[in-house]
Amino acid sequence: MRHLISPLDFSVEELADLLSLAQDIEVNPEKYAHSCVGKKLATLFYESSTRTRLSHEAAMLNLGGSIMGFSSADASSAVKGESVSDTIQTVSCYADICAMRHPKEGAATVACQKSTIPVINAGDGGHQHPTQTLTDLLTIQNLKGRLTSLTIGLCGDLKFGRTVHSLIAALVRYTGIRFVFISPDELKVPEYVRHEYIEKYNIPYEEVIRLEEAMPKLDILYMTRVQKERFFNEEDYVRMKDFYILNKEKMKLAKEDMFVLHPLPRVNEIAIEVDSDPRAAYFKQVQYGVYVRMALILTLLEISV
């Protein structure tokens, strides 16, 4: 039995197989429509979510399976003080696989140690978000035709952004990757990410504050929102939240084949006017998220079609 707690739980070769499966699902959805009949997915979301929860549920439904779970801690026995350990052991009696989001780092690791079913980490605090990373990898591969020899710009909240941390961890294993980190000093990439991934793999990178400075260099621009829920006080959040706003003027500085990604939700860091630009790929990214989660469910349940 396997779990997905970190994007590094799959080798580069296994990721290639997973992404290939997701691409086949996109082209031949009817081939997979009944592959999980009789299987149940539990979504245990202690923290609010739209895309991650619904895409896992859509993925299982598209495979012919069924879903159960809760969408907030208030709707579970967590309000009575039940531990993650006890919850996952209970849910293991009901479902065949589960996706869990929790505000505390390491919660998914605790769950997989006690679970008798595969656990998918759907986000643990500011730590990891591996299924978003799978989505990002599939999106980049489909748009650029490769996961190698790319300059990736990561913009916004690089300190608390778990999607950023997971994507960095995954991409450093591909050749020719270069990063441009675009953030204010207060929201720079954490030291542990820099040490464990960037320095360990000797990845070239630069840090800039102005988005305009980075735009002409990029193959992919990965925008993120400043996350109010990660800040300790309102004053710091208000000061940071409008630091970067991508608009049509800034898009004029980018290459014709540069694409903009965003894990969503966005607040105002990407102006609505950018949505009509053919390089705006964040809603395509949402659709790819369903395909890759379908592929992940089949892989973890060891179902061959």
Keywords for this entry:
305 residues; alpha/beta; Rossmann fold; 37% helix; globular
What does the model show?
The chain is an alpha/beta fold. The protein has two domains: about 5-125 and about 290-300, Aspartate/ornithine carbamoyltransferase (Rossmann fold); about 130-285, Rossmann fold, CATH 3.40.50.1370. The chain has eleven helices and nine strands. It has a five-stranded parallel sheet with strand order 7-6-5-8-9. The protein has a four-stranded parallel sheet with strand order 2-1-3-4, with helices on both faces. Helix 2 crosses helix 11, helix 3 packs across helix 4 and helix 5 (about 130-145) packs across helix 11 (about 280-300). The radius of gyration is 19 Å and the shape is globular.
Helix content: 25-40%
Q: What CATH architecture of the largest domain do you see?
A: 3-Layer(aba) Sandwich
Order of helices and strands: HEHEHEHEHEHEHEHEHHEH
Strand elements, count: 9
Low-confidence stretches: none
Number of helices: 11
Provide the CATH superfamily of the largest domain.
Aspartate/ornithine carbamoyltransferase
Give the number of domains: 2
N-C termini distance: 19 Å
Question: What is the CATH C-level name of the largest domain?
Answer: Alpha Beta
Q: What would the average pLDDT be, to the nearest integer?
A: 91
Structural class: alpha/beta
Q: Give the biggest sheet.
A: 5 strands, parallel
